[in-house]
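Protein in question quoted in full.
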Amino acid sequence: MVRPIALFAAALAAFAALAAPPAAAQCRLCDSPQTRRDEAAENDEIRVDVETSLSFDRLILSGAGGGSALLRPDGSASTTGSVGDVSPRAMVGTVVLHGEAGRSVRVDVPQRIVLHSLNGGEVSFDDVVSDLPSLPRLDSTGSLTFRFGGRLTVSGDADGDYRGDLPITAEYL
């Protein structure tokens, strides 16, 4: 059985394909090749793109005492104290740096931040770790991808959604 919504989506996709202009083939002999560097590299800047935000999703608390959840860059998790478990949907943060190919970079990630909830609650996020090599360097395409995690520490009644910003900076060496 075909649903009307599926038919509408198929018809819309067919219409979009018909309305699109024909794709022009690239003539390698007609046009001069692009030899410009990425704009970020021309300005001697490094662009920092957060590909995946760090998220503990949900924590299972088993009491009112303090506890913590640790999420490592490889995606593994562990808990202590009143934190019984970390959601399987928890995600490590992923960052991509873009700049001049082959350049060494220094990446600074704060070791501690405080997260806040709408009802005024606070939890701390600390012991931030990443899978960056000891001497990070942009690859031949001018990119470097790394993942990071850390420890979320809760105490007392920590019910709520918590948010915060982890400022990551990068610069050439």
